[in-house]
Amino acid sequence: MPRWWFDAHLDLAYLAVRGRDLRRPLAALNDATQGPHPPAGVTLPALRDAGVRMILGTIFTEVVPTDHAGALTAEQYRAGDADAAHRRGRAQLEVYRTWSDEGEMALDLAAGLHAPEGVGTIRGGMGVSEVVPTPPDARAARLLRDERLHLGILMENADPIRAPDELPWWVERGVCMIGLTWARSGRYARGNTADPADRVGLTPLGRELVAGMDRLGVLHDVSHLSDRALDDLFDATPRRVVASHSNCRALLDRDGQPPNQRHLTDRAIREITRRDGVIGLNLFSGFLVRGEAGEKRRATVDEALAHVDRICELTGNTRHVGLGSDLDGGFGADRLPVGIDQPAHFRRLADGLTRRGWTMTQVEDFAWRNWARVWG
Q1: How many domains does the chain have?
Q2: What is the pLDDT averaged over residues 49-64?
Q3: Left if phi > 0, otherwise alpha if psi is -120 to 50, otherwise beta: which for 252?
Q4: pLDDT (0 to 100) of residue 254
Q5: Cβ distance 244 to 109 under 8 Å?
Q6: Number of other residues whose CB lies within 10 A of the CB of residue 223
Q7: Which domain holds residue 141?
Q8: How far apart are CA 369 and CA 144, in angstroms?
């Protein structure tokens, strides 16, 4: 079985600001320390003990309507309030920087490593506006030999960036991947809950941010874009794009229902992988099983791996699929596939791939190598 794992989507700072003590082992959590979405499935010790070496931890913020009547949670802000979005994003950023300062993890999956050929690390200084050449190295191998967690920050919804010219400030502090919006539409793009007939995808501000991301080598995450926004992004950039935590729409859409824009069409999968992107398997049961069955029961490991199979069938290889578990990202461990309750159980995904005839090299592609290639 693989020694290491790369998980490309974990809402760790969100869980922390909502009350989970992520420094504690899972078994040590209690009602006062496990925070939202019980039963808990992820903490920092649980990740390390499972051999998860590289992760993308999110800054997740959620826009709510301006006429929203209730109290706002730690990650929510009213539509159009860029300053409030910025404050909430910074609060989550500080969680990661504090953990890094305390030695819980290394904040070292930097932007620029997936920039155009011949482009590498970020030029320092508060006015950073470009990436500069660096020679290739054995970065992934070096990180894996280090038993710390190695973190890159994925901004899930770009609204905390008050204007595109603020992007370098965030990149300097560890943001290496950005999804332009979350399910609800934001200032930069329409999200996956938008009306499929909406002809707006990226906003003018979004196109400006895309250009800035390309200059700095910040990776595009498409997991929450509407179909139109995804098409606009494909048109706006020739660069690599990824889907950190999305599954296959063909296995999920219901007859007679509107398209489920949360997940990827076969056409989108082919385009992402044509650009040498990677798609992360989301382990939420409701995103693994078609129709009401996924809402009422836990999926099986085989049902989860059916999405891996389809991606590999569409691409003809195992180089473009990995793990984007989304553990506890709005749901508890009791909504993961049967037998997977924490990171230590990721090995059951590897077992399932082995039963399907995958070689150990191919299993390691899925477990860590494909995502590491994006940063290596």
Answers
A1: 1
A2: 97
A3: alpha
A4: 84
A5: no
A6: 27
A7: 5-375
A8: 10
